[in-house]
Amino acid sequence: MRNKRIQLLTEIQQKREKMIETARRNGMASQETVRCSQELDQLIFEYQCFIKREKEQKKSMRVSFREMILSWKKAVV
Question: GO annotations under biological process (predicted)?
Fold first, then answer.
């Protein structure tokens, strides 16, 4: 999971740099710059979804662990 996060962040940075260079070379409203911007938006969205899923999985694991501990306590008592 950590590798996926690093990969997405790397892709975001590379796309950002490409978009800036394209805007300098062709202008902010050029088709190529707009396309890079849209691709960057998509990468950022994917990253946000990834982080959200990661947080939900951690929360689910904590709840499951808590339930397991509580069931052990009931079994012991």
Answer: regulation of sporulation
Q: What is the pLDDT of residues 1-56, one digit of tens each?
A: 689 999 999 999 999 999 999 999 999 999 999 999 999 999 999 999 999 999 88
Phi, psi of 30 (to 5 degrees): -65, 155
Helix axes 2-26, 31-76, angle to 10 degrees: 160
CATH code at 68? 4.10.280
Quote the number of domains for the chain: 1
Contact between residue 32 and residue 15 where contact means Cβ atoms under 8 Å apart: no
Please state, in angstroms and as integers, the Cα–Cα distance from residue 49 to each residue in 4, 45, 56, following that order.
Answer: 12, 6, 11
| 23 and 29 Cβ atoms separated by less than 8 Å | no
Domain around 58: 2-76
